[in-house]
Amino acid sequence: MANLYKFLKRGSPLFLPSYGRANRIKEHYSKFLTDRYGQVKHYYSPDVEMAVVEADIRNLIEEEF
What range defines the domain where residue 9 resides? Predict the structure, then answer.
């Protein structure tokens, strides 16, 4: 697995601190939303509507400025 995916999984809700590991990414079309510093803010499974993702992106942009 690429180091980028390891980093994204560790910062997302997929990570289980009690086990010290992250669950697998179940689908190829999963999405991660990060802030400008690279910290994962949201993880989206493929069945999430794009309107939800867009709203979260807009909120993140407003928070940072």
Answer: 3-64
Q: Burial, 55: exposed, middle or buried (Cβ in 10 Å; 0-12, 13-18, 19+)?
A: exposed
DSSP 3-state assignment of 42? strand
| Alpha-carbon gap, residue 14 to 17, rounded angstroms | 10
Mean pLDDT (10-residue bins), the chain, 65 residues: 82 86 82 90 92 96 83
**No. of helices (H) and no. of strands (E), the chain:** 2, 4
Query: What is the number of structural domains in the chain?
Result: 1
pTM (2 d.p.): 0.76
Residue 62 is encoded by which pair of tokens? 């407003």
Tell me the residue type at 16: L
